[in-house]
Design a protein that fits this description.
heterodimer; A: 377 residues; alpha+beta; D-Maltodextrin-Binding Protein, domain 2; 7-stranded mixed beta sheet; two-stranded antiparallel sheet; 16 helices; 45% helix; B: 267 residues; mainly alpha; MetI-like fold; 13 helices; 2 strands; 72% helix; flat
Chain lengths: 377, 267
Amino acid sequence: MVVIGDPRIDQQVIPRMQKGSPPDLTYPGWRFDSWKAVQDGAVEELSAALKEPAYGSKTPWGETFNPSLLKLGQSEGKQYLMPYFFSLFGWYYDPDLFEEKGWKVPKTYAELLVLCQQIKASGMAPITYQGQYPDYMIAGMLQPWILSSGGMEALAACQNLEPGAWQSEPVIRAAKMVRELRDMGYFQSGATAMSHTEAQAEFINRRAAMIPCGTWLYSEMESSMPEGRRMKFMLPPVLPDGKGDPTALMVKVEPWFVPSAAKNKKTAIDYFKFLTSQEKATQFVKEKGTFMAVKGSTPTDLPEHLASAGELYDASSQLWAAQWREWYPDFYKIVGDIVTELLNGELTPEEFGAKVEAEAEKLRANKNVAKYEYSAD
Amino acid sequence: MAGQDIRKTGFVLTCLVPGLTLYLWLVVVPFIKTLELSGYRFSGVSTKRTWVGFENFAELGNREEFWWAVRNSFTILLVVAPILLLMAMGLAHLAQGDSKGAKLMRTIYLFPNLISLVAAALIWRAAYNPSVGLLRGIGLTGPENGWLGDVGTAFGAFAVAFVWVSLGFYTMLYCAGLAGIPGEVHEACELEGAKGWRKYWLVTRPLMWPVRRVASVHVTIASLGVFALVNVMTEGAPSNRTETMLHSLYRMMTMGVNLARQRRWGL
């Protein structure tokens, strides 16, 4: 068996997929459009394999995964893409700073507004964000607040491009919240111009008190972290009067799959069973400092920045994902551009909704783009 | 005579064969293949291709990003590049002669050309940083959304960096051109009484034509080919305001967008 690893493995996988001589098993990374491959019939269906016993156990393989994560690789009830490790997305804060200043981690949006006022009065920017990549604000503010306001149905409707969904009351409310934080001056000045690392540097150097990010934040910034700096994960503050589950938590998965043109599918599946065995998964979490989609693979002695996210993961009764990001990458990029306009104060929440809805309508009308369906848990 | 001609033509043709073969193989054939591929819907992640004719053109035209990229690239070519060349010409005149000041100026203006484009882009990104940037440090705080974050200023801020990295090269080109004008011409001018602007318009400028022509061709290629600076400085943000044609092509290619549509772009 040959194992090839490369940070830009997509550049090797893509030509092989095009030629029809793909690897037997692949984890092509986030740049690879896995759903397009599924649509083209280039990805093997694994539903049958999931019923087989897992490596070194009698439990069916499919039951060893967290069902919410496994579901993310399904289309019309069939399993194509497999989860492996995953990230959680939320906000980060510095517990030492919060303690020193007597600030409390806000659970609700109202508490957030009060806290932002206090932080701003102390001369610090309450929230910074990775403005160059609107993805972070879609994941950390817009979507959680659509969900919080209108419940999972509202967010699912947006992901499913239901007519009017992007102009619905929950979306407008979420946009209003973003706009309000901006208009109150609670976002760091100039954050729209910042790259992810620039904004994250503002956070770790205590020029901003909170930042939306995924659980990779610590390892991404570790080399430039001031001595002894701590960070903890928190949920985006919610609306207590909203329909959403206040424990809802966003997960991000980068899928593995077996190409349909693979020559040794059986071996590939067996090998992936081995990689996702209890023992291997636990080892991976320890070595790489990230969570695994395999049930019971999270050790108890995680570092604080991960443990704080792990606790919320264990306590969450609703895991959700932004699947439209993978399904409709063009549309997602356009929505990002529109979010930037909202953050820059060029659009009112209503204009924001109308503009996104118009783009959603274009996508609905485009017969060339395969449509998928997000199902709420 | 006729025999010699044939032999000569034969010799020339023989000499052309390797070059023509390479050209056909590496330029013409890929171009035709690209043209063909642009008529397909092709995800680029499997072997599946569907013939769609001109549909990819239409889809590209529907995207705001495409029009921003075209608009920005042509603004660079038609507005920024002429300003750049005018500045270079002015500086070249100032940096003429053998005085220490002139030599120092020539060195300074060439400096941005000595560092890599990526480093220059990073320098400018750092300078524009809305929290800790140099510009903020000298009181140019810029708009609330940051120089590179505000849709009103992002392109201008980017254009300044483009001029900064390009200016030295064209200044040097013009310096060389100016130095190449024989001294006698200048002396003759002075004897005839032509000075200042008059001398520039009637003598220097026409004599500089070959150099200006080279500069124009070069700046056209450079303007339409802006890539590294965008890729490192902004990646087209905010909302496509700094997108350029080449960068947009690259972005679509790496972000998992219909591969055939990029072929359209490429053409």
